[in-house]
Amino acid sequence: MKRPKIRIGVTGLNAIDNPGPGVPVIRGLLEAKSFDAHIIGLAYESLEPGIYMHDLVNKTYQIPYPSAGADQLIDRLEYIQEKEHLDVIIPNFDAELYSFIKLSPRLKKMGIHTFLPTMEQFDERLKVNLPEFGEKYGIHVPKSEVIYQVNDHKKHMEKLGWPVVVKGKYYDAGIAYNADQLAGYFNKISAKWGLPIILQEFAHGTEYNVTGLGDGHGNTISAVPMRKQYITDKGKAWGGIAITDEKLLNLTRKFIKETKWRGAFELELMKDKKGQFYLLEINPRIPAWVYLAVGVGQNIPEAYVNLAMGKEVEAFETFESGKMFVRYSWDMIVNLSDFEKISTLGEL
Amino acid sequence: MKINKHIAVSDSGFVFNPVTGESFTANPMGIEIIEMLKKDQTIEEIHAAVLDRYHTDNTTVEKDVAEFFELLKNFSLIDRHETTEN
Fold first, then answer.
1. Angle separating helix axes A300-308 and A22-30, nearest 10 degrees
2. Which of A57, A87, A177, A222 could cysteine-pair with A41, CB 3.0–4.6 Å?
3. pLDDT in tens, A55-68
4. Is B15 helix (H, G, I), strand (E, B) or coil?
5. Alpha helix positions (H), chain A
6. Is residue B47 scored above 60 in pLDDT?
């Protein structure tokens, strides 16, 4: 039977040391059994490596930064749509999700499907709202406080204790062992990502992550837990192993059922010595290590596209545990003319 | 005492716990003990087998086997409720 061709726009092509999920998402899409994927890259910067991976990406367009606002983004997407006739867009950055969620009805009118969390779901799981989220859904989360001025930390330290994790509202985090270090992280992170800054109680233990997909009605379509085995100085997994911890899987199913989560997500958790899991963060998108899920039998990008297209998708029941991913870096040789095209014309 | 039923042990002594994602390397004697645990052999049977095979004194065997069980327990390779019963 001939498989349908689906034209998919993918962001997050920055396969760097703090990698965006775009390239592994594309690898999953190209391995899809239910359709043939035609990939259109959507990039913010001209040196995002995925732009030059011509065996994975058919064509790439530059799009405006989220800070430029939703109007500029929709203008650019209208231009791209005229040429590419996209069926689906998979946004892969936290910072761009707000715009894409807001624009999703307009995108739908243009023929572009998305499968994103609702604005309520997106807001509810924000780092600044995590304690209330934990309380509402009965999930353990470390204590945290939001600050707008560096000196405000003083009134929370008795409650949070040292060390404390200093987090940006979207990205970046550091562990501060004293007030000087805290001030350093506060200034560095707020300069890059803005205010507020979140101070989170430091949870001791082993890091675990789960990626998955909810159908928006409380059903779990996919859930794959992973233990980080090699962590970079940016806290990113450079190696990890799929595991079968039922406690983690039950927690994930509970999260999806209670929130009726729509779309992909990543849960970041810490397991303490007593075996108790603490939820550190919920990322409302596919993570950069998603290809592990594909490799163990749950092709999340494929299921995501089918859900976006309104198709019935059966939940994955099993996956192969004990398989690992080991990330590597790779130097591509790129013609200057390619760099010139994406830099000057905004497309390649 | 029962080894956690999920644990995978290869011939080379590579021990993998698919629940936690942790892996360990066991020496030949360690592999033998884990295999005996998997066959539900009792502590007494394990002592006797090790004593017979390694021609050493009973005190040394008891001490070494107890230490090894403690390691298995610490690494969550033995079902916790089983260890308390034994």
1. 80
2. A57
3. 999 999 999 998 88
4. strand
5. 22-30, 70-84, 94-109, 119-124, 130-137, 157-160, 179-193, 246-259, 290-295, 300-308, 336-344
6. yes
pLDDT digits (tens, 9 = 90+) for B61-80: 999 999 999 999 888 888 75
Mean pLDDT of the region A44-62? 97
A241, A319, A325: best to mutate for the B interface, most B CBs within 10 A: A241
Q: Give the angle A227-A230-A235 at the CA atoms, nearest 5°.
A: 90
Query: What is the reported pLDDT for B83?
Result: 42
Mean pLDDT of A118-143: 86
Whether B42 is covered by a domain: the verdict is: yes
Best of B15, B19, B73, B75 to disrupt the A interface (most A CBs within 10 Å) is B19
- Please state whether beta strands A262-271 and A206-215 pair in parallel, antiparallel, or not at all (unpaired): antiparallel
Which residues in chain A are closer than 8 Å to B21, comparing Cβ atoms? 208, 226-227, 229, 240-243
Domain limits at B26? Answer: 8-85
User: Are B20 and A322 an interchain contact pair (Cβ–Cβ within 8 Å)?
Assistant: no
Nearest CA in chain A to B19: A245
Residue A272 to residue B1: CA distance in whole angstroms = 25
Give the mutation candidate from A208, A209, A229, A245 for the B interface (greatest B CB count, under 10 A). A245
- Let me know if residue B2 belongs to a domain: no
Please indicate if any CB of chain A lies within 8 Å of the CB of B6.
Answer: yes
The minimal CB distance from A245 to the residues B8, B16, B20 is found for B20
Distance between CA A77 and CA A70 in Å, rounded?
A: 10
Distance between CA A201 and CA A203 in Å, rounded? 6
**Tens-digit pLDDT profile for residues A168-212:** 887 788 899 999 999 999 999 998 888 889 998 888 888 899 999
Give pLDDT, residue A67: 84
Distance (Å) from the alpha carbon of B22 to chain A's nearest alpha carbon: 9
Give the 3-state secondary structure of residue A134: helix
Instruction: Look at chain B and report how many structural domains it folds into.
Output: 1
- In 3D space, the residue among A116, A62, A57, A108 whose CA is nearest the CA of residue A86 turns out to be A108
Q: How far are the Cα atoms of A22, A75, A336, A346 from residue A343, in angstroms, in the given order?
A: 20, 19, 10, 6
Residue B80, pLDDT score: 59
Task: In whole angstroms, give the CA distance from residue A252 to residue A210.
Answer: 8
